């Protein structure tokens, strides 16, 4: 039985000016597991601006999805054992409803246990549609330098531009956001591309 004390916390990167002065903050600590058994973790709590009441066990869903890479499954085979993420699965979840469609979704990002800052490349990012009895993956980004996010009222994929910020030793401050468009069954990147910020 899952421990009801398991929690998740989210800490965002500092603003660009803050990042330049002090680097990014410690990464959000993901899905925490109490006790010794590396069992699937409880869902992360909804973000403050979420509108859906449906949730998912992100670790279990990722493990069971044949479309999720072995690298990601290896990363969540057990909680992190040391460092900033000790005792936590490196899985970060936010819940939303797609604008106009009203479809409940979970944005799930997976990061390794090694990094210490909030901004290094993620292993992969996913969007899952939340049905009453299941979760369906409707978008994947797995290039090692991107994540899924919610920006300006809708889902986006954020690509970190490390080349543009080669002088930064912690977090690239240049991010290209590309809108994800819903076609009724899947999300895909908008044809007109994204905007750098």
3D architecture notes:
The protein is mainly beta and 197 residues long. It has one domain. It is 10% helix and 34% strand. It contains three helices and eleven strands, in the order E-H-E-H-H-E-E-E-E-E-E-E-E-E. It has helices at residues 16-22, 58-64, 70-75, and strands at 8-9, 30-32, 88-89, 91-97, 104-110, 124-130, 135-141, 146-151, 154-160, 175-182, 187-196. The strands form three sheets. Strands 4-5-6-7 form a four-stranded antiparallel sheet, covered by helices on one side. A four-stranded antiparallel sheet has the order 8-9-10-11, with no helix packed on it. The chain has a three-stranded antiparallel sheet with strand order 1-2-3, with no helix packed on it. A hairpin with a 2-residue loop joins strand 8 and strand 9. The longest helix has 7 residues, at 16-22. Mean pLDDT is 74; it is low at 1-29 and 32-48.
Relative strand content: 25-35%
Silhouette: globular
Q: End-to-end span in angstroms?
A: 44 Å
Q: Helical amount among residues, as a percent range?
A: 10-25%
Question: Number of helix segments?
Answer: 3
Low-confidence stretches: 1-29, 32-48
> H/E element string?
EHEHHEEEEEEEEE
What class do helices, strands and sheet pairing give?
mainly beta
Q: How many structural units, i.e. domains? A: 1
| Largest sheet composition | 4 strands, antiparallel
Give me the side-by-side strand order of the main sheet: 4-5-6-7
**Mean pLDDT over the residues:** 74
Question: Cα-atom Rg, whole angstroms?
Answer: 16 Å
* Beta-strand segment tally: 11
């Amino acid at each position: 039985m899952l421990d009801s004390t398991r929690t998740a916390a989210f800490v965002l990167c500092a603003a660009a000016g803050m990042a330049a002065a002090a680097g990014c903050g410690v990464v959000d600590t993901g899905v925490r597991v109490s006790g010794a058994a590396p069992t699937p973790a409880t869902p992360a709590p909804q973000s403050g601006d979420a509108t859906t009441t449906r949730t998912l066990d992100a670790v279990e869903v990722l493990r069971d999805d044949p479309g999720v890479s072995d690298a990601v499954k290896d990363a969540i085979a057990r909680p992190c054992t040391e460092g900033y993420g000790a005792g936590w699965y490196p899985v970060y979840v936010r819940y939303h409803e797609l604008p106009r469609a009203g479809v409940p979704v979970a944005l799930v990002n997976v990061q390794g246990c090694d990094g210490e800052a909030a901004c290094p490349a993620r292993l992969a990012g996913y969007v899952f549609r939340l049905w009453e009895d299941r979760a369906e993956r409707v978008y994947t980004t797995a290039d090692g330098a991107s994540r899924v996010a919610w920006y300006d009222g809708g889902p986006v994929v954020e690509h970190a531009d490390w080349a543009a910020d080669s002088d930064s030793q912690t977090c690239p401050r240049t991010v290209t956001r590309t809108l994800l468009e819903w076609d009724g069954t899947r999300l895909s990147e908008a044809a007109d591309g994204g905007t750098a910020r």
